Fold these 4 entries.
Entry 1:
Amino acid sequence: MPRVKRTLVLTVLIACSCAVLLLQLRFLRRHVHKPHILNPAGQLTTGHGQWQQTLKKFLELAQRHRMPLFLADVATLSHLTQDALQQHQGPPPPHQGPPPPHQGPLCSFLCSGRPVAAFALQASRWKYDAGFLLAAEQRGFELMEFRGEDPRLASFDSLSGEEIPLHFLFRLHGFVIQVVFLYERSGNYLWHGALRLKAGADRSFAPFTLLDYGRHAGAYDRPELVLTVLDGLDVRVPRNVSHFLAQQRHAHFLECRYREARGFLQLYPDDASPPALEFRRKAKALLHLAARALARIHVPFWISSGTCLGEPPPSPCRHPMTPDP
């Protein structure tokens, strides 16, 4: 009898172990993106082809709606060199296209091994078009839109509360494409806002920890863009890739506290006398000269002390590693 009981217990344990194993395999098949691995020959796998087709569908849709996107994905740009950028003035002729799979790797740049990609958009060059979002949904894309208050109006008491688009997330076949809106600020630089999930938002929509943009606001110099071909797709990229990536690493934007600044000026009115105005003019000219000289030799800097830090600035603050030009 004891032996029979042990056999029964062992049978039950084996059955339970098999059931748990089957559940784990089912979970892995549904949630783990195996396609993001190149095969030993470097050929395009099925998942890479699907990722490339997703990007192609999205970029064609953006081009049709005159959305001037440029590639801002850190992993992809990190693989680019100036020699790899085949610049041209327009799209390739119709007969040209990606070579068949047997001719070599087709997705050597855009298939970075991650299920996300980032593009940026200078908001002043595109009028918000709800038709674009509708067309994307009709093509199978799921959308999550993030909005926030326009900080360019924060310095005016009577102009606040207006919301502007900050980020778009498009999802298709488990892949996520992020579109970052860059807005022109008064200091002649581009700004993007932080990506913040509101209460009740679907936190499983995207792998948010993998997104390159949105943990905090950022500020950038206006990049010069060039049109190139990456993995058979027409894509705009920053001409100076290394400079753009260096800025991305340090582009932590700190907004000025306008309410405190206004309160300070009420207690201590601004000195508008000719000597004070001349002093501020010379101080700003000196800072601009220092910024240009240090940027020319790629030396990051920040203001650590002095009168300039004590004076409430008339324009929004930037991160100390990215001074106004």
Entry 2:
Amino acid sequence: MLPLRRILSKQASSNISRSFHSCQTCYAAKIIDGKAVAEQVTQEVKEDVSEWVAKGNRQPHLSVILVGDDPASKTYVRNKTKTAEKVGITSETIRRPSNITQEQLLKEVQELNQNPGVDGILVQLPVPQHINERLICDAVSPQKDVDGFHMINIGRLCLDIPTMIPATPYGVMELIRRYGINLFGKNAVVCGRSKNVGGPIAMMLQSDGEHSSKMGKDATTTVCHRYTPPVELANYTRTADIIITAVGCPKLIKANMIKEGAVLIDVGITRTINPATNKFRLVGDVDFEEVSKKASYITPVPGGVGPMTVAMLMKNTLIAARKDISYT
């Protein structure tokens, strides 16, 4: 018999799915509530952590290295450690000055790699310019790489082998799954080709999903990027059943660039000033007000993909603690 929370989770997913399919013919966009789904995921992780500890295991532990004083990075790290505490994962934030040398940072990472009491490691990005970001990401042990940025984890993702999936792409796929959005044979357009977000999302969208990771969506996937001419970008997006954008360009995707009933998932986030109030606000890559009149489903910014990133990071930390993935 399924535990009650699993039944409730399945019922919630079923209700979301029915809502999506009934909406496909009305084209008044429904909101993909990332905050609500993230709360579901964190509750599930919390219960799984409790079950894990009840079996005599120690609490999973997450170590975060924060280099420098970037305000946004401080906020992100605070959100991560706060959520970790909420689900029963212990955590620590290792703060280092921006003038730390690359060698010193590598030493910090290696010490965490060798510490058996540490299950998950992440180095908050970006790091200062004098530090090679790729070198640091690849220094983290793949088994403890809860960000999913190590070349081995990205390579395994490309081969559809069980791996640590980068938290933001993982969150996007989880939203698609829980809202019952069927992409089999559909046209998907990804705007953005970053190695940590756009690339992994495109890989999972086009994958067949019949192998070990079970994350593939069997979509016909096109990747656009900064050098895609605007006219060509619009040509691609107008044929898309789903558009996932992660470029950090406010209102890049406008209503005349999508077809009716398309699904819009907005990963982009930019801090701008509201001219009406002269206050800062966060905006996405999608012209939300106009596109939402034409799309079937859309994520808001904030409150869409953002909360899912932290939730999936917690799930990855539990996966690392339980050693659910074999690297041998």
Entry 3:
Amino acid sequence: MAAMASFYLKNPGPLSHSFTKPTKTHFAPPLKLRLRHGPASKTRYPTRISASLINPDGGKLIELFVEKSEKDSKTEKALELPKIKLSKIDLQWVHVLSEGWASPLKGFMRESEFLQTLHFNSLRLDNGSVVNMSVPIVLAIDDAQKGRVGSSTSVALVDDEDKVVAILSDIEIYKHNKEERIARTWGTTAPGLPYVEEAISRAGNWLIGGDLEVLEPIKYNDGLDHFRLSPAQLRNEFEKRNADAVFAFQLRNPVHNGHALLMTDTRRRLLEMGYKNPVLLLHPLGGYTKADDVPLIWRMRQHEKVLEDGVLDPETTVVSIFPSPMHYAGPTEVQWHAKARINAGANFYIVGRDPAGMSHPLEKRDLYDADHGKKVLSMAPGLERLNILPFKVAAYDLTQSKMAFFDPSRPQDFLFISGTKMRTLAKNKENPPDGFMCPGGWKVLVEYYDSLNLVENAKMPEPVPA
């Protein structure tokens, strides 16, 4: 559900933060973009606006790649170290850390950072300033792996083919208290939490933290790597477009015209506030999602159609993939989603009903209060520089035959199409009301459920990346 009510400007301009490099913590500190979000543009942007992007947390974007000149020697060193095999989700976290989404972290969390995250949803830097950090970014190992590490101060991280991905140095191993981690991150230990079952329940009883050195950028070779722009690449793109404001919108579902209404209305309001060229970061989550979510490749195809059909303006929209895994941890996780976008240059963040939420795994109700996400964001430690844009509900207006902001004075005129209803229509190849979703986008969604049915009937393989 989507649409925006009103928002206020916390900080009209960028803030400078001093930054002191510590010793034993993680706090320290392009290419030609291929953006497939519409036909090539010949539009000339106006004269450069006298404004700069919001500073990253800690004052500097932390990228954790080894220098090209050191890659061979680091690789040779890694081959002599104890090895820890990364799961698919672990590799996604390496991706997140390496590009600076979690700045100013320099690697997987050591115990002090883990505890601060669990208990305060923030990290205190050596200079006394506070940055938000609400979800633990940790690497679990089991007893056997711990034994193999022994007294070594560094380990090599390898993928499922035993290829060296990174080195973790100056390591610290500490107890993985799973119950505490789950309870404080999700607010419940009820069975059935998707991320918990996928990444925590069967994980080892130890956590290993340290400084991360990644040998080369993480690639997935799924046909979507050109969409995976790092914070540095996004900042370059925003500067190239002369953006004087960046507003971010995260989705893990297909885009319908209610979402588009929200995003275009947000830009209109920013223009009314005096910004000259606000740019939208349409930023679907691309890491782990639960089994019944629409897979990333299909969502990206649908997002492309939304831009091709002109529902969103390619000139003022940047489509990129956010590589983080999804926790479904509600008000706790939405802080992470907002914080990461600061590092990408966004100074406005759109938040809706029950962000990062899900149904209770055992009971027929939402796991979190639908309004708590936006309330928490408005007062979360370390997010003071970010302007939060809450939105009200959009629904299908029967009198206008299009998506519109809900008017409580005439509720009988509005039709609410839930995600479940949308999926049911698509599965049955039925059309939604005219104006609910662009035809191209709806066609992609129908094709996904049609292919899913065929896969389940063993009549065709999984879809091949475009």
Entry 4:
Amino acid sequence: MTIPTLSFLPLFLLLLFSTTFTLSSSMDCNKIDRAVLLSIKQQLGSPSELAAWLPATNCCTWFNVYCTDTGRVNGVYLSSLNVSSPLPPALGNLPELTGIQIEIMPGLFGPIPTSFSKLSHLEYLEISGTSVSGSIPAFLTRTNLGVLVLTNNKLSGPIPKALGGLSNLRYLDLSGNSLSGSIPPGLLHQKSRFLMLSNNKLTGEIPRDYSNGDIDTIDLSHNRLTGNPSFLFGITKPMTKIDLSWNELEFDMTHVMFPFHLTYLDLSHNQIKGRVAKSLKDLKLSNFNVSYNELCGEIPTGRYMAGHGADCYLHNKCLCGTPLPPCSGGN
């Protein structure tokens, strides 16, 4: 069986899946693991999509079940099942699990089961597009997570500071929930780090430690964040995407030096002042937006600035010059 195509995931996550979820169909699956999988099927209400999950068959050949070369189940991928049930606690009874992916199941509800605390080998957990609710449990620190994706669910409450104790966590996406409170510092570790917390109800200032180290992506858009985030910027920073749009952030952009490798920058719908930074001329941005701020003065021209249309600058205090109307003598 081959790994499902997960085009929405970054390449390093695909690599993680391909090394985490391996299958040896010649080896019969562990009998206890098979019984647990049948229990998971029952707890989901025995959906028709899992009709092939049958007793006395090799569970390593079941659709979207992945095994080690010794027949232990180490990965489960469940998508678009027609269910109306809680998230199955029995998943926590598969001790060799390194990866769980559950997506596009709006009928799945309830909290993240405490049984997940037993999954000490778990490296990848995704629960997305469900009605799973409650808080993000601190007991996830008993796992070995490097990737945690809990997106477009009904989770609420604060982001647990304890998640910073996951020493291998480098990819965190909690977007599309109702999380509140401040962003804890020190959540990410290792190289090539990603922090996505968009479309929540987060408040307070962005912790300064997210300007340090090898961070590729920061998306904190559509929250209620305040303060000056300019410490995130700097020409030598390795970031490729920064999205801070739809917050209440405030700083003077005039002399900011943006990361040289940046390809995506959205600072729209904030309280940014000053002029459009000249450093933007050297950035080949596929997405750029500073609209709905308090910027003023003439827009820099030359190099890559020609690729940005008027919609990138709309609704500012007094911006002028190409691609907006020409400046008057006072600008």
